[in-house]
Amino acid sequence: MSAKSKNSGLDPARPFDSAVWAKAEAVAKRYQFITWYDEDEKAYFGRCVEYPEAMSHGETPADRDAMVMEAVTLGIATMLEHGQRPPLPARDQKRTEQVNIRLSRAEKGLIEEAARADGFRGVADYLRVRILSAI
């Protein structure tokens, strides 16, 4: 029986096994996070580079950090329960390959603006996260 089918009948409301949760927390602590303050919402937002689906917010930076870490840990624990492998921390992934694209000045400006709005410091990380999360 595969790990996926073995765990598919688990009640989603039940707590995680403590060993699974501890392993998920250890993995999450090695991940990178992008954080920002949104003036319109009057809240601090954050998300994980390696696990972009995990996002959260809080009234203070500490609240935001705790909520984002919990969201990431929850996602990783779920993956572990289902026999899936969580993404490697970005710092462990050697980036040895390069892709070059040509853009118009207007396209580059639009992408840079979108990257900043999403809390990225550069276009490369923004494009990598956006493209890889869409696959």
Model description:
It is a single chain. The protein is of the alpha+beta class and 135 residues long. The protein folds into two domains: 12-93, Double Stranded RNA Binding Domain; 94-135. It has helices spanning 3-7, 18-28, 61-81, 105-117, 123-134, and strands at 33-38, 43-48, 55-58. The longest helix is centred in the middle third of the chain and has 21 residues, at 61-81. The radius of gyration is 17 Å and the shape is globular.
**CATH class value of the largest domain:** Alpha Beta
Radius of gyration: 17 Å
- Secondary-structure-based class equals alpha+beta
Q: Return the average pLDDT rounded to an integer.
A: 87
User: Terminal Cα separation, in Å?
Assistant: 28 Å
Question: How does the overall form come out from the CA principal axes?
Answer: globular
**Tally of discrete structural domains:** 2
> Stretches where pLDDT falls below 50 for ≥5 residues?
1-6
- β-strand percent reads 5-15%
Total helical elements? 5
Helix content: 40-55%
Q: Quick one: how many beta strands? A: 3
Order of helices and strands: HHEEEHHH
Largest sheet: 3 strands, antiparallel
The CATH architecture term of the largest domain is 2-Layer Sandwich
The neighbouring-strand order within the major sheet is: 1-2-3
CATH fold group of the largest domain: Double Stranded RNA Binding Domain
